[in-house]
Specification:
Strand order of the largest sheet of chain A: 1-10-9-4-3-2
Number of strands of chain A: 10
Largest interface: A-B, 40 and 44 residues
Strand content of chain B: under 5%
Structural class of chain A: alpha+beta
Distance between the termini of chain A: 84 Å
Radius of gyration of chain B: 25 Å
Oligomer: heterodimer
Largest sheet of chain B: 2 strands, antiparallel
Structural class of chain B: mainly alpha
Shape of chain B: globular
Order of helices and strands of chain B: HHHEHHHHHHHHEHHEEHHH
Distance between the termini of chain B: 82 Å
Strand content of chain A: 25-35%
Largest sheet of chain A: 6 strands, antiparallel
Helix content of chain A: 10-25%
Chain lengths: 155, 404
């Protein structure tokens, strides 16, 4: 009973079969990883370099804004909402609803900010006052330089 | 398949009895014989001849699955036709659909049938699923039939959601913003899933091409494979006779699948086709305004009707429930409901009647909830919708003061 293969197996504790299975398994696993890793990375969108905007001069002037009205503006690649209150004061917010990312609008009949998607309301300080939004709208600073309106991120 | 005797290549005399009809001396007969010698499809004949459908007072529900199948193939056909004109980019998508509707002969018809067909397919899927639920056709050994069906239901909703965006109009844009934001609330992986779906941080042209790939190849391809599995399993196990019928001594009898059942199926399909044509002609698909990522969500925005019950639930939930964000609670609840739906065959094994009864009541509750919230979604908000209707969408020149 001194089969050379068997004795070698006893020496190392590894049979030919298990070695072959290990090689096949590792090779197969490596192949799958080599195929699916690039596919997975391909599907994840690349990060775009966005010039991080901290301040924008709006393309419309103080005169364009009636009292008790609101208007969407571009803040980099994000929508912002500029409001001129009944007293003539300017306020600016991020226009992205904190609930599920819809774009909000100013309701001149209620003097509140409204999201049409799920009926969420914010007051003129951006606070979520009713409906499903869980958080207030981020507030921006508004500066008036002559006729121009400059909106900037709050530092 | 259970009763398929003699699969494999025809082996001479044994096959003679199962030759295709008319396989005598005629030219067509000889051609069929020639083909059969190479394909061996006549081995299926005994199975087809033997296939029977039990007859009882719930037999009508057996027709609904075939109806979904017919509508699926109609979607594939009209979808392929739409591909001839559609251009998947944020700059061109809306215009290409506009062109299709206005200039292309019968473009409006093809698109309207595709749009209405999608709605009708999902509607029949709901009926199919709930009829299987109430008749308990998911019991052993049909668990995998149920699972493949539930997956197909999810795929159909995915097809509806991705297809909705493709015309790149305002409604679709916001529906997609909301819909892709929903996985964003899942802890840990939410942000990643959201970006994977959107192809970036925002809903842009990158989202459109992604949805396009999903809508025209990945989801239909997966659906097709799963439909094959689903139908194969239905053949293997035969039609499920509901327990309520079995308790009363079983079905009254059976009818042959070919031709009796199939011909009735065919009548149903013709009716569906006629309904679709009528809907498409009377209420053609609309296109609305082009999407603008710097315009507020329009008043009265709503998703497709089959998402309405979830949409309206999210609308009704308060901002915080027990210290958690309301939307997170709602979405988690729908997630759990979805998992339970998938696992029903393993939860309701029908061991005792009371237990099984509870599942019937639960399904009934779910159905009532879906119907009630859908109706509420369309009717409950007249105040908000009315106030919004009075609102000028964008400040026009008339709104501006003449002098400061």
């Amino acid at each position: 009973m001194s089969d050379p293969i068997e004795s070698r197996q006893r020496d190392t504790g590894v049979s030919r079969r298990s070695l072959a299975a290990w090689l096949l398994g590792t090779g197969g696993g490596g192949l799958l990883a080599a195929v699916f890793y690039p596919v997975l990375r391909y599907l994840i969108p690349p990060k775009l370099r966005e010039a991080s905007v901290s301040s924008v001069t709006l393309p419309f002037t103080v005169d364009d804004m009636a009292r008790n009205s609101g208007r969407i503006f571009r803040f980099g690649n994000q929508p912002g909402l500029l409001i001129r209150t009944s007293s003539g004061e300017f306020r600016a917010f991020s226009a992205r609803c904190t609930h599920l990312d819809c774009i909000v609008q100013y309701r001149d009949d209620l003097s509140e900010i409204w999201c049409a998607c799920h009926n969420g309301f914010f007051d003129l300080s951006g606070r979520n006052v009713s409906g499903p939004p869980p958080d207030p709208l981020p507030v921006y600073d508004v500066g008036i330089r002559g006729d121009q309106i400059v909106v900037s991120k709050r530092s | 398949m259970q009763k398929r005797e003699g699969m494999g290549p025809p082996t001479g005399r044994a096959e003679r009895g199962d030759q295709p009809a008319g396989a005598s001396g005629t030219r067509v007969g000889r051609l069929l014989q020639w083909l059969d010698h190479r394909v061996g499809a006549s081995a299926l004949l005994p199975f087809i001849r033997k296939k029977e459908v039990p007859v009882h007072r719930h037999t009508i529900w057996y027709y609904v699955g075939g109806m979904v199948l017919f509508l699926f193939f109609l979607q594939v056909a009209t979808g392929i036709l739409l591909l001839f004109y559609y251009r998947p980019s944020a700059e061109e998508a809306y215009e290409s659909v506009q062109f299709l509707m206005a200039e292309v002969k019968f473009g409006w018809l093809i698109r309207s049938i595709h749009g209405w067909g999608a709605n009708l397919m999902i509607f029949t899927l709901f009926i199919h699923m709930f009829s299987v639920l109430f008749l308990k056709a998911y019991r052993a050994p049909r668990e995998l039939t149920w699972l493949s069906g539930a997956l197909l239901f999810a795929l159909a909703l995915g097809l509806g959601f991705t297809g909705y965006l493709l015309p790149w109009n305002e409604l679709a844009f916001f529906a997609t913003r909301v819909g892709t934001e929903i996985p964003g609330v899942i802890p840990v992986v939410g942000q990643f899933v959201r970006e994977l779906l959107r192809g970036g941080e925002e809903v842009t042209g990158a989202t459109l091409t992604r949805f396009y790939a999903l809508h025209v190849s990945i989801l239909p391809g997966l659906s097709f494979l799963l439909i094959m599995l689903h139908v194969l399993l239905v053949q293997k196990h035969g039609m499920s006779v509901p327990p309520s019928i079995e308790e009363r001594g079983g079905a009254r009898g059976t009818i042959k699948f070919v031709p009796n059942f199939l011909l009735r199926d065919l009548v149903g399909w013709l009716v569906a086709l006629a309904t679709l044509a009528a809907l498409a002609a009377l209420i053609p698909a609309h296109l609305g305004e082009k999407a603008d990522s710097f315009a507020p969500a329009p008043a009265g925005i709503k998703p497709e009707w089959y998402f309405m019950f979830m949409f309206h639930t999210l609308k009704l939930l308060p901002s915080h429930i027990l210290g958690l964000e309301g939307e997170m609670v709602g979405i988690a609840a729908f997630g759990v409901a979805g998992v339970v739906l998938f696992l029903i065959p393993f939860l309701d094994r029908g061991q005792n009647r009371r237990h099984s009864r509870a599942w019937t009541l639960l399904s009934l509750g779910a159905l009532i909830y879906i119907i009630a919230l859908t109706i509420l979604g369309y009717t409950a908000d007249p105040a908000a919708a009315q106030a919004a209707a009075d609102l000028p969408a964008t400040p026009s020149a008339a709104d501006l003061p003449a002098t400061p």
